[in-house]
Amino acid sequence: MTLHGLRRYALACLATASLLGTGCGGSDEDDVKDAAKDLASSVKEKDYDGVCQAFAKDTLKALEKALDGDCAEKLKKEDNGAIGQGFGSQDPDDIKFEKVSVKGEKATVKVKGEDAPIEFVKEDGDWKVTIPGA
């Protein structure tokens, strides 16, 4: 994937389904669901730092390279109203999960109403969003 393609994909992901991973001591499936709700809140509130902290280290590094700078600063500067729509416009407590699949240190979440599933990786005990190929 080219940097331009990655940048477009990253902004589209953020606009529709950015998710923040934080473990809460429940099952991995529950923790992944909580991660989805936590970042939905960050997206809805336009908490750009929280949005960027949602990404796994390798994904964040690739995003910052594609964005040519600090993730949060660039998202704030380039937000034309897309962040906070779709998934981010929902009340985090109203999110409906169609499927959550956890296999070891990887998870996939399908949120009702969203086209594509979201992929997570467990990193330092927290569930973080990963973009395949980033």
Question: Secondary-structure blueprint of this entry?
Answer:
Elements: H1 3-17, H2 28-44, H3 48-53, H4 57-67, H5 71-78, E1 97-103, E2 106-111, E3 118-123, E4 126-129
Antiparallel strand pairs: 1-2, 2-3, 3-4
Tally the beta strands.
4
Distance between the ends = 8 Å
Count helical runs.
Answer: 5
Largest sheet: 4 strands, antiparallel
Mean pLDDT figure = 78
Shape: globular
Report strand order across the widest sheet. 1-2-3-4
Which bin fits the share of residues in helices? 40-55%
Radius of gyration (Å): 13 Å
Helix-strand string: HHHHHEEEE
- Count of folded domains: 1
Could you name the ranges where pLDDT drops below 50 across 5 or more consecutive residues?
A: 1-7, 15-24
Describe this structure in words.
This protein is an alpha+beta fold and 134 residues long. It has one domain. The protein is 43% helix and 17% strand. The chain has five helices and four strands, in the order αααααββββ. The chain has a four-stranded antiparallel β-sheet, covered by helices on one side. The radius of gyration is 13 Å and the shape is globular.
